[in-house]
Amino acid sequence: MPFQRPSPPALSFPGEEARETWLCGADGGWKLVDHAVGTVTGIEAIDFDSAPFWSLNPDALDEAVALRWEGYGLSAESGARLWTHWPVTRKDKQVLVGTLALTAESSLSDSPGYEPSARMLSLPGNGIAVWRELGRYVAAFTRDASLLHVAVLTSRILDADAAFELRDVCAALQTHGFIGEVPAIHVWTHCEPDFAPQLACLFAESSVAKESRPDPCLPPVASGLLPVQVAVRRLQQQRSQRRMLMLAAAALAYLCFFGAWWLRLQWRDSGLNRADAEMAARQPEIDLVREAQTRWLEMETAINPDLYPVELFHQIVSLLPEEGIRLKEFQIDDGRLIVSGEAATVNQALGFKDRLAGSEPLRRYVWNFPVPTIREDNRADFRAEGTLNGGTAHEAQ
User: Fold this and answer.
1) pLDDT, tens digit (0-9, with 9 covering 90-100), for 28-41
2) Cβ atoms within 10 A of the Cβ of 90, count?
3) The whole model's pTM is what?
4) How confident is the model at residue 7 (pLDDT cuts 50, 70, 90)?
5) How far is CA 66 from CA 91, 106, 114, 228, in A?
6) In whole angstroms, what is the distance from residue 350 CA to residue 370 CA?
7) Is the CB of residue 84 less than 8 Å from the CB of residue 100?
8) Counting C-beta atoms within 10 Å of the first and last residue's C-beta, which end of the chain has fewer, N or C?
């Protein structure tokens, strides 16, 4: 259904030769101005088709009007709204509906709203009004106080031929029961001398009045019209705005991510700088500790009984079985302990390896025990190399 809309301050109306701009004053009256911003656009009558009809379903006028214009080949695309309608009168269970549909692709600029020019004029009730619009003559037919039908005359001057054309349009409307006799015809523009007399002959029951065209104003209820080209342009603008918003969001996320990353780097650099400064301040103490540690490592082999060669040899010999393994080599070299020998079988060599690795007194050593070499008589040569792990006996404990 059409929606009520507060009046904007200005409108653009198709005048006799060019568009006119009208501004609403504080008193509610409209005055002609040279220019105004944010004007509602009055679309000229030549861009419309008018097709009044009787509807049998007063409660579903929107659907009835849509089916009617879709039957004529019109369809709304890209959110466009190409037709508008309004009830004219009721008769029994029928409703007489006036309706206009945009059929021309005029070059319209973006506007707060679009209205048919015929609905922006105060039309006389139960009559005909004739005016000039951008060089063409327009006739509006009313029933009671409502607009019923709009027609653009083919005649380029208001003469006797134009009067006959007006009579033909009126007769067609009367044939369909849309209007009855016309009590008055209002001419709001210049006409030829023979136009009014010919009207008086053709419309014997009608009075002919030559008057100035009333000032345009906004209709009380908005039509909701939205031409296709404007709808497409707005849709493209919305898509462009969405793309820009997405790009802006991506750029913001990018800045946030790398800003947080940069702040984290700055925080880490600050922490490292503080740690470097603290270490530099404590470097003399660290050097003293390292020097003491070095001296201890140099003296450990001499003062730690657990590292005496005799004690190490005793611990290794205690791991040998009563028979089956014979040691060939026992060597201590710069913190390394090398043991090699001969076993009666491979299993005995591997068993010695397990005992060596599991020895509690020798746990300060990390052992490397390659796969034993098997001789032709099935005896196995083995070699084990242990490296001190922990540096000192105190640390190992």
Assistant:
1) 889 999 888 878 99
2) 10
3) 0.61
4) very low
5) 22, 22, 19, 16
6) 10
7) yes
8) N
